[in-house]
Amino acid sequence: MNRDELLSICPSLREALRRNRYDTDTLLDALGPDVHAALSRNEPVPVRRASAACGELGTLIRLFLLTDDCPVGEVAAALSPLPVEDAVAAGLLESEGDVVRAALDLRPMDIGGGNRWVLSDLDGSLRPRETPVDHVIGVGHASLSLLQATPTAPVGTLLDVGTGCGIQALHGASYADSVTATDLNVRAVDLAAVTAALNEEELELLAGSWFEPVEGRTFDQVVANPPFVVSRARVGHTYRDSGLDLDGASELMISRVADYLAPGGTAALLASWIHVEDEDWRARVASWLPAHGIDAWVVQRDVADPALYVGTWMRDGGLDTRDPATATIAEDWLDHLASANVEGVGFGFVYLRRTDAPTDLMAEDLTHGFSDPLGAEALAYFERVAWLRDHDVLTARFRVEESTALERVFLPGDEGWTQVVARLHRGNGPAWQHEVDDLVASLVAGMRGDGLVLGELIELLAAAHGVDAEEFAQSAVPLVHALVRHGLVLPT
């Protein structure tokens, strides 16, 4: 791969891709939903059959998405006005006799704001190949999950740490005035630069480790999908291995990112953390945060047991778990986790905001399904936390968020239906649920924007139900704080 030559062919390559409508919408229309799903499953035969009727677009599908050997004449027609020999010289293609094949992965992506093309290294899913240390991974599940979970409110400056193929930086360019991206892997920086040029985007791309290239600078937003694989302190592949022991990469990112956030700036990070015997994972993550200056919302989406975790990443590296040599690596990996008393590995999102107040942390599990993206919710969460910090809830009025519902669950008993639980359920966002008793349900039902302040409402209900108002307030205040944090009730 030659960065300068790849940059030089971007205008003619872009023209060819546009002429053939090599974009996400056209691919779906041309292949149909069933065949398009087969493409996502890395099943080439249905895609190859369908692409035969797609003309020059079909050639691009077979060339870049299936990594087929393609006749040089067909490729020349599809890539015109880009000469095949120029594409080969730049490292986009490889030639062998009368056929050419892709040397890089080039695929359209819809990441919000329209179609984009992303360059990365071939992943070996359709054409087996070894994965070198400086392999630049394409847009996988982790990248997509961060894209969907990143706040996209307009910002001035954005930093993408560990940019890889540049997908997060490219996404950031749709809502940030300027984007800076760093990566230790020079090959990743080069490919990200070509991706930016192909999409006619201006990005500042810097080679270097972690935050070193931007030392002394601050940004309105930081995003990162760092090499957070939990393993020994060594590097097998730069896209996933940090060279730090266990969850050291996540610790480094979470503990240092505040220094690079402008006042009020936010960070959206993917991270992982170990679950250690007799230790709460929340306390572990909390220990990585500074004591002052950060609001943090940490969302654990999944936990994998060590065997599942190791097996997943072994397959990700293209290793056959049945191979004796691979088994030796797995044994060593599992031994290392066992020596650290690791019972599981958690994975999720970390949202941070720079403040001028004592650090506030909420770390929680969010393993149930929901459809709304988390990015906008994270910004709203920070606003609610800031409000709680500055106000006494007893003197405030609240309203119930319009999607919040009261659910009651009844089970059959000896005397008919018996209520076993009542819960408040938010119908949008992360779909939070809080179990409540009848008194709290009445308290929430009485919340009106033009009604009583919370303290008065507590006194009224305490008198009506014959309970001590002070004791009721002591239990109600932290509950209202939790309901506000989760957006089930909102201050007016």
Descriptive overview:
This protein is α/β, with parallel strands linked by helices and 492 residues long. The protein folds into 3 domains: 3-103, no CATH class; 141-389, Rossmann fold; 393-491, Arc Repressor Mutant, subunit A. The protein is 39% helix and 26% strand. It has 17 helices and 18 strands. The chain has helices spanning 3-19, 24-40, 44-51, 55-65, 72-79, 84-90, 141-149, 167-172, 186-198, 248-256, 281-286, 306-316, 324-339, 374-390, 438-445, 454-465, 469-485; strands at residues 70-71, 93-96, 99-102, 105-110, 115-120, 155-161, 176-183, 204-207, 219-224, 261-276, 292-304, 342-358, 360-365, 398-400, 404-413, 416-426, 433-435, 489-491. The strands form 5 sheets. Strands 8-7-6-9-10-12-11-13 form an 8-stranded mixed sheet, sandwiched between helices. A 3-stranded antiparallel sheet has the order 1-3-2. Helix 1 packs across helix 6, helix 2 (24-40) packs antiparallel against helix 3 (44-51) and helix 16 (454-465) packs across helix 17. The model has no long low-confidence stretch (mean pLDDT 93).
